[in-house]
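task queued by scheduler; priority normal; single chain, no ligands, no partner chains; default sampling; output format set to structure tokens
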Amino acid sequence: MTSKGKTLFDKIWERHVVRSVDGGPDVLYIDRHLIHEVTSPVAFLGLEKRGLKVFRPDQTVATPDHNVPTEGQHLTIQEELSRHQVDMLTKNCKNHGITLYGLNHPWHGIVHVIGPELGLTQPGMTIVCGDSHTSTHGAFGAVAFGIGTTEVEMVLASQCILQPRPKRMRITVDGVLGQGVTAKDIALYIISQISASGGTGHFIEYAGEAVRSLSMEGRMTLCNLSIESGARGGLIAPDETTFAYVKGREFAPKGEAWEKALADWRTLSTDEDAVFDAEYRFNAADIVPMITWGTNPGLGTGVNGRIPEEKAYAGSDLTTFLKALDYMGFRPGEAMLGKPVDYVFVGSCTNGRIEDLRAFTSFVKGKKKAPGVTAWIVPGSRQVELAAHREGLTAILEEAGFSLRQPGCSACLAMNEDKIPEGKYAVSTSNRNFEGRQGPGARTMLASPLTAAAAAITGVITDPRDLLES
């Protein structure tokens, strides 16, 4: 007997289908379109060539984030390409009547940080952006995914997108997380188990006690990294934690509209008899603080673990394995603990929220930064920056030898002034460790804010639990 139950993903998707193409993609209506300076200029140029205006500018929100400097934001941007792209975003938004939260605006920040904190991200929505980590917004029970420049133009012109429906996957994490284990560790653990291509063709729903225990910030981190398993996106069914986070935010429904929205949001869950195309189940007790040793997010281990031996790989996988180790300057079987660290980066759309800064600051309080470490602590938005000042985090960081920069994507990617030098090792709370991702020749090890804090204090890869216990 065929199941009649539907997944949460299918329920949201089907609400937004305008038309289905026989044997092809769906025409999907988009509730919220987020844009930034990197993937939008060519899309706007396409509109101009066709003599079109943005169809529904009130459903599009813009902010510059990838290319912006994280120091001296009141000054002219020095890098020519960065300055040009930010200027073009400003011009295009003005020409098309699009809301722009530019540099020095109180709501400026990384697009995937400001969406949730302003209440622009809500359960049941379809959300797109010309950025792969749009999956972040799925933490609210939304179908959110990244799109290419041609698709950005399509949404600007029609508020719709042609999109094939992906397969559905559920990943359940049972049990209670141990001390020092964060949402970032859950994500890196899952990817290490299913690989950096294990989610290809799927949209992931995360479930289980460990997932439910996460704050909204933690859920955003988990969904953010869905794309690093090859998935199209990830989402978590909304619950009381979700509703409490959204309530009262700038663009959240108010009054009667809130009650009506809340009643609808409470219906957004997967039916008990729904069937997924793929299922994984993990035990939270098996997850420890994680760190990557290779050149994709799936090449990771527990911080107290070792790099695999060659015998763990075969065929083309062995070639990839050896190439990754050669780039990183590591060898099979080596322990990760004790490896020297040159740079520590805390920030990005993965871990640049106020909760991440609180965790890092709490860890380093009363300690001192290791003298050989350069640390960049970068808030994900102006609101996060102001909260850090208001809560006294800035003073604690400065006492420990750190300083807080200004909002932006920063050292997540080599598109601005914050680049890791060639050959240097960086413990990064961002989302990708590809060759050259943080700068030509940079060597990136992905980790949580706690593991990054432990490295910043000791100057080497350290199990944060050891310092938490002490």
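post-processing summary
- The mean pLDDT is 97.
- Residues 8-164 form a domain with the Aconitase; domain 3 fold (CATH 3.30.499.10).
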